[in-house]
Amino acid sequence: MLFSQKPITLAVSLALSALWNNAAAQSDAATVSSDTPLMTVVVVGSQPVDVEPGSVTLDATDVLPLRAATSDTATLLRDVPGISFYGAGGVSSQPVMHGLGDDRLRIKVDGMDLVSACANHMNPPLSYIDPTSVAKATVFAGLAPVSSGGDSIGGTIRVDSPEPVFALAGQGTLLQGEAGTFYRSNGNAVGANLSATAAGENLSVTYSGSTAQSDNYTAGGDFKPAGLAFIKTPQSLYNSTTWLDGDEVGSTMYQSTNQSLGLALRHDNQLVDLKLGYQHIPYQGFPNQRMDMTDNTSTQVNLGYTGRYDWGKLEARIYTEHTEHEMNFLEDKAFWYTGNAPGMPMNTDGKNTGAVVKGDIMLSARDLVRVGGEVQQYRLDDWWPPSGTGGMAPNIFWNINDGKRDRYAAFAEWEAQWTPQWLSLLGLRYETVNMNTGAVQGYNTNGTYAGDAAAFNASDRSLTDHNWDLTALARYTPANTQTIEFGYARKTRSPNLYERYAWSTGGMAMNMINLAGDGNGYVGNLDLKPETAHTLSATFDWHDAAQQSSGLKITPYYTYVQDYINARRCGSGDSAVTAMAVCTNANLAAVDKFVFLKYDNQDAQLYGIDVSGYFPLAQNTGFGSFTANGLLNYVRGETTRGTDDHLYNLMPLNAKLSVTQRLGGWTNVAEVQMVDAKTDVSQIRNEVETPGYSLLNLRSSYAWKTVRLDVGIENVFDRLYFYPLGGAYVGQGITMPPGAGAGRPAWGTAVPGMGRSIYAGINVQF
Ligand SMILES: [Cu+2]
After folding, report:
1. 235: CB partners within 8 A, 6+ apart
2. Ligand 1 centroid to residue 326 C-alpha, Å
3. Cα–ligand 1 centroid distance for 294 (angstroms)
4. What are phi and psi of 528, to 5 degrees?
5. What's the 509 CA to ligand 1 centre distance in angstroms?
6. SS3 assignment for 677-701
7. Among 27-36, 37-46, 374-383, which is the least confidently predicted range?
């Protein structure tokens, strides 16, 4: 059977995850001996085609080799076709799928719909889980089934930590764990992780902890003059004391700690799991934001239930997450401002509580129905305490006061295996989004603050959206060497709290609202409508019958987005007063400058193609087996109906070619990454172009029975290049506007990529 009617099982499992799962009756996996050496790929259950429609799954095999190479969880998805990344802090980059990223993707971490609680989206969902805790990632591109999540238009990414393990009958208490550490030369990054499990047949307790830290990284060459991070004139007293070399990328340091305690209880076919999580990021620099993260604390309580019945499977989850986030300036950015204002504290408090119930009902051998509901209540306060005695005093600036964004959703989905060749999936989802926010105020009543606040406070801010999603797809398998999956999806996303409710047209306040990393300033728009995407996509997949040695996959796609939430320049009509306003005619016309924008609905279209493949070059030679891998991504996007601009942050044409050698316990990879110049840029945002580049990366791993070693060199030739989606470099200097001149970041520099980095990591199981 080409698609199992059984609830989802892991199709391919590394021995490590087999260890985690070895006694888990929750999995339909065949029992795998716990002394299977690391790196052995064990195929269990059905064929590898037994994956959820429209999805790509990464398991421990894919993720383990990257643990030593990155502390940035999103980048674990680097080899998934169609994915690229928005650059941000060292542990906070964001995946983009087919040109749609950030809140346009539904990202579930251990089943929780996490929300970035920050006006710069410094804490996006995947920053809440460390790469060493990731056991599995499932990526649904544009044709995501409605059961995979709502309030998103670009697809769904599910990232999960290991499933609980239990002792086998008669085995007594199971004690196991793993520990690892890594070092990366560029930035002197170090980290460690530890996890330990004690389990009986019905009760399992797991602790995991990890930590990672890094100094600023260096680029492959000078991209600015060496010198003090900034010089303040005339207040030379407040000059920087930090020296940055010409190749040092300011504000890229970070430190992060994640801990969790998991408890799981099982009885027959019922499983209850409780996870308590705690994350602390004491500092994380942002080279493409005017602020840095100076503290981020997250606490999570996540309680889940899975029950298997004769009729199918019932899953339920309730979670609550609390983020306390603080921004200010780290040492590469000026701290003291006019009036001796000591920095600019900005605080955010986000409370996110959700519940999900989902039933997979097997109506017949042919028909599987998934029905469910989701509730999410999100509360956000975003306030900026006064600083000094000048423009940032004497009151608290309330950016979002008692913001509320609640979602209520219900869905039904029908999956049918008509014949061994034909599978269909049809789903409908309805979602209500209720948003509101309280009254606001500026630091004082100067400039635009009083007028903007009064207008905002007098407005009707209680907004309700009724969103309908639909996914219809079919999978045709004419032979065991070919699959074609195609379909249509309609997906809707409501604006986030910042897009609707950021209210101040003051230049400094606007520059603090930036979800894009482009150095510009933004103001919200109470008239924003939800954006609705219509996607047509097909995936053609050719492979050998066992899906082991060779395959080629091609995915063309087209998306039309009605009311795409974009931005337009703000002009004099957008500000309550004109004195000191930055929304001016000059702003409307500005080129080669940072500008001020207002969120706005426009229609847009995106289209492109992903190509990926692998084939054997040589098998079982004296030097082992050699496999070639290739990946090519192409995406274009523009606004339509008269605005005619390129969409912001679209990855230029890019490809990756690699050769993998396997010999005994060794796996060696040589990879060339090629990226075209980014010249199709968003004019409305004065997006900075980036040149094309190619990089060579080398990776090796050796696996013993319980020990695994990873070493590698990234950017072997130490090339200087710029991240096409890394945004504008504002990583040093007097980053808080207004004004231009000495010490302030100049428009026109993109954030450079990392120069050569040599890394090594070791992981031990016990
Ligand atoms: Cu922030």
Report:
1. 336
2. 6
3. 8
4. -60, 140
5. 13
6. CECCCCCCCCCCCECCEEEEEEEEE
7. 37-46
Going from the Cα of 650 to the center of ligand 1, the distance in angstroms, rounded, reads 23
pLDDT at residue 679 greater than cutoff 60: yes
Q: State the distance from the centre of ligand 1 to the C-alpha of 119, rounded, in angstroms.
A: 6
Distance (angstroms) between ligand 1 centre and the Cα of 448 equals 23
Q: How many angstroms separate the alpha carbon of residue 592 from the centre of ligand 1?
A: 26
- Comparing CA positions, the residue from 28, 44, 124 lying closest to residue 85 is 124
- 223-229 average pLDDT score: 95
Phi, psi of 66 (to 5 degrees): -95, -10
Q: How far apart are CA 289 and CA 729, in angstroms?
A: 8
Task: Give yes or no for a contact between 509 and 442, defined as CB atoms under 8 angstroms apart.
Answer: yes
Is the distance from CB of 14 to CB of 39 less than 8 angstroms? yes
CA of 347 to the centre of ligand 1 (A): 8
Asked if residue 32 has pLDDT above 50, the reply is no
**Confidence (pTM):** 0.92
What confidence category does residue 9 fall into, taking pLDDT thresholds of 50, 70 and 90? Answer: very low
Q: Give CA separation, 254 vs 65, 81, 125, 424, 674, in Å.
A: 22, 29, 17, 46, 28
Phi–psi pair at 133, nearest 5 degrees: -100, 0
Query: What is the b/e burial string over 717-755, where b = at least 16 CB atoms within 10 angstroms of the residue's CB?
Result: ebbbbbbbbbbbbbbbbbbbbeeeeebbbbbebbbbbbb
- What count of Cα atoms within 13 Å lies in the side-chain half-sphere of residue 686? 20
Distance between Cα 125 and ligand 1 center (Å): 13
pLDDT at residue 408 greater than cutoff 60:
yes
692 contact partners, CB below 8 Å, separation of at least 6: 652, 674, 675, 676, 677
Phi-psi region of 45 (alpha: psi -120 to 50; beta: other; left: phi over 0): left
Between CA 522 and CA 737 the distance in angstroms is: 13
Size of the chain in residues: 766
Confidence (pLDDT) at 575: 80
Helix (H) or strand (E) holding 719: none
> What confidence tier does 739 reach under pLDDT thresholds 50, 70, 90?
low
Give me the mean pLDDT over the 100-127 stretch: 97
Which pLDDT belongs to residue 707? Answer: 96
Query: Residue 592: pLDDT above 60?
Result: yes
What is the pLDDT, as a whole number, of residue 23?
32
Q: What is the mean pLDDT of residues 681-689?
A: 97
- Structural tokens at position 414: 């029908």
Q: What percent of the chain has pLDDT over 70?
A: 92
79 contacts: CB under 8 Å, gap ≥ 6 = 62, 631, 656
